[in-house]
Amino acid sequence: MWRYLSKRLLFSLVTIVGIVVIVFFIVRVLPGDAAIVRAGPYANEEKVEQIREAYGFSDPMLVQFKDYMVGVFTGDLGVSIRTQGDVTTELLERLPASLELAFYAVLLAALIGIPFGIVAAARKGTWVDATARVFAVLGSSMALFWLGLLLIYFLFFRLRWFPGPIDRLAIGTDPPGTITGFYTIDAMLSGQFGVALEAFRYLALPVITLGFVLAAPILKMVRASMIDALESEHVRTARAVGVPYWEVLFRDGFRNALLPVTTAIGIVFGYMLGGNIILEVLFAWPGVGRYAYSAIQVNDLEALQGFVIVVGILYVMLNVVIDLIYAWIDPRIRLGKKVST
Amino acid sequence: MKGRNRFGARVLGVLLVLVLVAAACGDDDDAVTTTAAPATTTTAAAGTDTTEGTTETTEGTTETTAAVTTTAAPAADKPVLVFAGSDTPNVAEPHTFRSTTAYMVTHHVFEPLIEQVPIEGAGGKLTGSTDHVGAGAVSYTVEPAGDGLLATFSLRPEAKFENGDPVLASDYRYTFQRSIEGPGYIGVLLPFIGVGDASQLTVVDDLTFQIETTVQSPLFERFMTFQVFGALNEDVVTANATAEDPWGFTYLNTTSASSGPYYISEFSPDTQVVLDINPYYWALDSIANAGIVVRTVPDATQRAQLVRTGEIDVATGVPERLLPELAGDPNVKIFEFPTSGVNYMAMNVNLIPNVDLRRAIIKAVPYQALIDQVMFGYAEPAQGVVTTPMETHDAAIGANYSTDLDEARALLATSGETDVNLVLGVRESRLIDQEAAVLIQENLRQVGINVEVQVLPDADWAARASAGELPMLIHDWFSWGEDPFYQMQFLTQCGSFVNYSGFCDANYDAIVDSGKFSLDPAVRQDASSQAQQIFWDNAVWAPMWAATRTIVTGKCVTGVKTGYSLVPDLEFATTSDC
Prior knowledge:
Number of domains of chain B: 2
CATH superfamily of the largest domain in chain B: Periplasmic binding protein-like II
CATH class of one domain in chain A: Mainly Alpha
Shape of chain B: globular
Oligomer: heterodimer
Distance between the termini of chain A: 21 Å
Distance between the termini of chain B: 71 Å
Shape of chain A: globular
Strand content of chain B: 15-25%
């Protein structure tokens, strides 16, 4: 297991270095001049040049690259030209908001997708299966922002069941002390159940929006994997020798379907880390996605590349975790050989 | 059975790992700020007392004393206002170019020497007039001195910073000196009033401050009302300066050293900024609310809906397309402030050198349709670089900027140009510019000119516009102080950073300069008309509209004010009146 883990970590390190290098050059070829935006319309060329000098934009590309690499590997992602703040600090301040949203959205998607997929597979060809497939098609084809707009309009503006898209907590509510960065968990850990409830209420609409859309691929994956498993010879044999149906369904069917399902959840969670920009803007959610959105608007290169690097590293780490889960679930993977059955 | 238990344990383990991984990614100590909405700190008494400001003019000298206004609501009843703008307040440093909402924040924090006398309009609207009264100064005089002016400000002895330090003449001197010598952009503006060196700033005594200018600018008093000249606490800023940052810019990025009615108690870009009442402010009674929470709601539709449901009290940047519906909502009030700002389509005279072609384009632009269909009536015709609401606007010249497709076709024929294909660059963030571009594109197609509308990221647009790479572009501008010569200088004089048309005419520049530093209204009118005529003759722009600034509020909000900068001033705003 340790050998397997070491190998995965080594590959991850290479991947991260690759991300860091590619990000630098991609960001540099983006059109626009951040210094002009930063200087404002009253500035003259001298002021713009001062800004370029201050941020190192005038340095040769290789010098910029060296400074950047040294910075990245010492945890310094530079200074945001928009906020003048430290990018590493600003991203870490906003990351828990994005992770909390992603976590609950994936949880909701799994809670919808997995049981629905199991039932659809078990009742293949029935109305239950048809309903599941309609749900999957709707979820896959509906634009995230459109669903968000609909939910905001009906559930907030018309019915007032949920609070408006303004932040993580109501104006005037103190956030709980930081333990994990998740308001819901931190509030509960510190006994502020009212704050936790409020945090859940503000999470509800974006989580429902994301959860609905993300449930579709999970459902499809669970259904397909379960059908494959349930139609396999060993399951048929188990049924023939009288193993109870529910035991076959969960022990043989779901267990065998677990690997692709884990992959699906991993991909969805990874997508959530970097793909939340539109939703965070729509719901005024103070996460890294909105930070990136603001950075893009003014060509804030340091902030933008910081965002991509952090999300890239998280994505790679997530893949390592998924690989480890794989190896844990299926020993054949970590042993690197096919176990005869 | 054993196998099933092991399987269940693994599933449980997987879930636990996922929870732990997600939770562990939270930052430990400094991830989330823990300050929330401001507490009410004022102790004002009930009652209303308004004393008119007095203006006394003797030969060449104007002396003005302050108006004192107090409002009715006792402190305990004062509400905390919630404001949402279209962008994030990015920095609080007052001499740095910053976001629109950041200007709104700093407007409430730094007290300039003088301020505009407000005129009360319907529904609790307050509009800054062209009369001025003392703010940080209790009185002031401005008198001719040689070629320039000598302004003497008697400071308010009771004025204090947020930490209780008295506001002294040395603080104002430091503020002006910092704006001249520091790395911000304000130093670029000061030559407009004939101030370019710290030796022109004199501390007579603790409470007397003088500025001597090299020119007699009619804009001098207007400039003195600008927030960027609001007093900074010299002791606090210098104590937080470093060798690399001798003017303390980094320190002021997120804090205030306030001399104004509010101070910044929380500054979290992208989340919220909290403005609490400065407990030492000299006119606590006049502040009509208990503080302001500034939130960022990037999506304009959601911002409008939050006002409609009462979660936000005041919002700016609400698109005009939403205003007709909001106007019919009994829970919403729309404050309208006509402005002299200009939205225009510039033509690069170097890339489109044929003046007849440019004039054909000007004649093909659907001016009224733009006002009706893009601005939904919340605009006036601009009719020139000196727009219709601006002093010295020449209506006879402005009338040339009208739509006439037949004349446009004739001009195109005269130009000798055939198969005309042009690029019109617009900014990604400006939906109204994109909508206007589509209408212009259609009209130009009708006269035989093909236009490709390019929607560009803002930074790309700015870089290409500055480099003179866009044949046509849509831009907007509002001049603080609303002065025609100031507007012409920035937008149309040779070498100006935002002269995106590349228009350069030495005679034009000389005429603009002659009006810029004249106090004689007749001279200014004559110079302005001449400049407007040259500008029309050269067919540089299609001036589209002069926008009406709108501020959307809840139905109970009163006391919303704007002035020369158009920045919403909420010092007198409250929701207590219904």
